[in-house]
């Protein structure tokens, strides 16, 4: 499991915002939001009722959402070669976790981000947090109120992110948003959802629509064929994010970290990522991995057991022994979610 460190400027901005709101009051709001977040019905608009709710939401969810999106972006970047977005559209971005993650993934700051959300309170807080960002891509982001449940007319962008949004929409709204995101994306789309069976089901549905729209899956899947995960299983990954003392206080937790489980799909237009790196063969730099580790590796004496999703054979388990030399050393270093 990868450990994701919250950027110092984001950590400072959240801490300052929480100090401005009595942490005890935020804790009470967080408890209500936890109950709503764990529910199974679309609730986003009524849950975030006011500025206090949004501040509590940022304390409760923003670090974990950032960690999930940042981990997914790292997997995508590893398969996309030298491709770099010039523009970024964050759909349902709220307080901006995905926008901060994209800013960290491409720290050169050459891209321009636009956040669309239906909650004005979330956008207001997101803009306030972004003003404290060190990088211009986050600091200069545009924050625009827009409904997302019906098929919206979206501005075109090189990269479109949709993080932890689909579960807040009706089935028809999800279909409209994913199709609109695919239509707006000149280069790539990344969609992330909670790492639950329901979240995975939404990702699989979105994956099918992205493929139908002409995009190629680059991560986490090693192919565009039907997902081999069936039955009661579901594909998900995890990211560990460090908590601040104030974050622990607001959430009522004692551990110095939390583990966020998430499902995701990242897909790109082949012509876009190929044109970005013409000197590199598509097979080498802009294609999905041959296989991906889909469970925690099991390390035994002289052996490593890897559960893989593979391009040719679906779900398999491979055993890497010490006698395999470099492959064994690589397997010992492999982590859940890594390409193999």
List the helices and strands and how they pair.
Layout: E1 2-4, H1 8-20, H2 23-37, H3 44-47, H4 51-79, E2 87-91, H5 97-105, E3 112-117, H6 120-130, H7 136-139, E4 142-145, E5 157-163, H8 171-184, E6 185-194, H9 197-212, E7 216-219, E8 237-242, H10 245-251, E9 257-268, H11 270-276, H12 282-285, E10 291-293, E11 298-300, E12 303-310, E13 314-321, H13 326-333
Parallel strand pairs: 1-8, 2-3, 2-5, 3-4, 5-6
Antiparallel strand pairs: 6-9, 7-9, 8-9, 10-12, 11-12, 12-13
Helix pairs in contact: 2-4, 2-10, 4-5, 8-9
How does this structure look, described?
This protein has two domains: 2-285, Vaccinia Virus protein VP39 (Rossmann fold); 291-333, no CATH class. It is built from 13 helices and 13 strands. It has helices spanning 8-20, 23-37, 44-47, 51-79, 97-105, 120-130, 136-139, 171-184, 197-212, 245-251, 270-276, 282-285, 326-333, and strands at residues 2-4, 87-91, 112-117, 142-145, 157-163, 185-194, 216-219, 237-242, 257-268, 291-293, 298-300, 303-310, 314-321. Strands 1, 2, 3, 4, 5, 6, 7, 8 and 9 form a nine-stranded mixed β-sheet that branches. β2 (87-91), α5 and β3 (112-117) form a beta-alpha-beta unit. α4 packs parallel to α5 (97-105) and α8 packs across α9 (197-212). The two termini are 15 Å apart.
